[in-house]
Amino acid sequence: MGRGMDGFEVLERASELARQGEQFALATVVWRQGPSSGQLGGRAIITADGQVHGWIGGACAEPVVIREAQQVIADGESRLLLLGTREQFGEAVPEGMTVVPISCQSDGALEVFIEPVHPSPRLVVVGRSPMAQTLATLAGELGWRATLVDGPDFTGAEVDSRTLVVVATQGHGDEEVAERAATAGPAYLGLVASERRGAAVLGYLADRGVPRDRLDRVRAPAGLDLGRTSHREIAVAILAELVQLRAAGALAGDTPTAASTPATATDPVCEMTVTAGPGSYPHEHDGVTYYFCSAGCHQRFASDPAAYLERESHADHK
Fold first, then answer.
1. Shared-domain flag, residues 157 and 170
2. Are residues 44 and 81 in the same domain?
3. What are the angstrom distances between the C-alpha of 268 and each of 63, 87, 243?
4. 8 Å CB contact between 235 and 225
5. Cis ω for the linkage preceding 94 (within 30 of 0)
6. 107 Ramachandran zone, left/alpha/beta (phi>0; psi -120 to 50)
7. In a domain? residue 308
8. Do residue 206 and residue 225 come from a single domain?
9. Are both 112 and 136 inside the same structural domain?
10. Against a cut of 0.70, is the pTM above it?
11. Between the chain's N and C termini, which has fewer beta carbons within 10 Å?
């Protein structure tokens, strides 16, 4: 899981994931109050499926940070967490900060900043015309990962569900290249062609058995309609369309895949979020299993369950 990484190793791993096109969140400890195990400046990467690389705190903090990081990945909004209690800080808690109760065994606290990292788009331009070269160059200027591939060399193996593909073979094997690209299921597939030529290629793909849902996502012709333009201006129109779609979240590859989120529960004693698993001191009472952050909370609950369940019942009716 990579929890032993130091701060620089975490950043190196972040760069590696970005190059691979993976979405993740970067969590950084920006403040701490002892005896919390998190260290100032400590960093961790949290992936969409809940894997952790690095260290931002122990068993009290980790389930909360994983849960919040997965939400950050999903909505693309950074957030600042205060892992402690409002009673520790009173009116000093800034507006907009998310406060989450943690450890019932110490007065330690952490402030953790979580930010989403969405890698730059990967664009594959198939063709060798000046337009294709201009499009790849312009995308590179935006910081996108752009690759220019000649039609006969394009196999589709370099394409996945996050890749953007523009077929600009312009009459040289359009149908075959478009079929290979559509079969690979990219986030975007655009064909540089007239409307008439585009309809003919789509008809060919339909006859070849390409699924309707993939055909419906093919842009033919690709790019914003700017009227009569030069080949290089077509490149600008296509890139403008891609930027517009990405900003609107309309590219299929911009949506993180559903994360395999570990089940969580609320410790009925200290009210912190814990993983609902065998490592969280499960305790069954009246047919319900409760989970705890520590053996101390488990013992307190086991000695007098009614006291904590009654408090929970009162809170639900407020």
1. yes
2. yes
3. 16, 18, 48
4. no
5. no
6. alpha
7. yes
8. yes
9. no
10. no
11. C
- Does residue 116 contact residue 131 with C-beta atoms inside 8 Å? no
HEC assignment per residue over the chain: CCCCCCHHHHHHHHHHHHHCCCCEEEEEEEEEECCCCCCCCCEEEEECCCCEEECCCCCCCHHHHHHHHHHHHHHCCCEEEEECCHHHHHHHCCCCCEEECCCCCCCCEEEEEEEEECCCCEEEEECCCHHHHHHHHHHHHCCCEEEEECHHHCCCCCCCCCEEEEECCCCCCHHHHHHHHHHHCCCEEEECCCHHHHHHHHHHHHHCCCCHHHHCCEECCCCCCCCCCCHHHHHHHHHHHHHHHHHCCCCHHHCCCCCCCCCEEECCCCCCEEECCHHHCCEEECCEEECCCCHHHHHHHHHCHHHHHHHHHHHHCC
Is residue 253 within 8 Å of 184, Cβ to Cβ? no
| C-alpha–C-alpha distance, residues 312 and 294, integer Å | 19
C-alpha triplet 118, 119, 122: angle, nearest 5°: 135
Q: 133-174, pLDDT tens digit by residue? A: 999 999 999 989 999 999 999 999 989 988 999 999 988 999
Structural domain harbouring 39? 7-119
pLDDT in tens, 297-313: 899 999 999 988 887 65
Q: Are residues 240 and 274 in the same domain?
A: no
Number of domains in the chain: 3
In one-letter notation, the amino acid at residue 217 is R
Cβ atoms 116, 27 nearer than 8 A: no
Position 213 pLDDT exceeds 70: yes
pLDDT at 296: 82
Query: Could you tell me how far CA 16 lies from the centroid of its own chain?
Result: 15
Average pLDDT for 30-59: 81
Q: What is the CATH number of the domain that holds 204?
A: 3.40.50.720
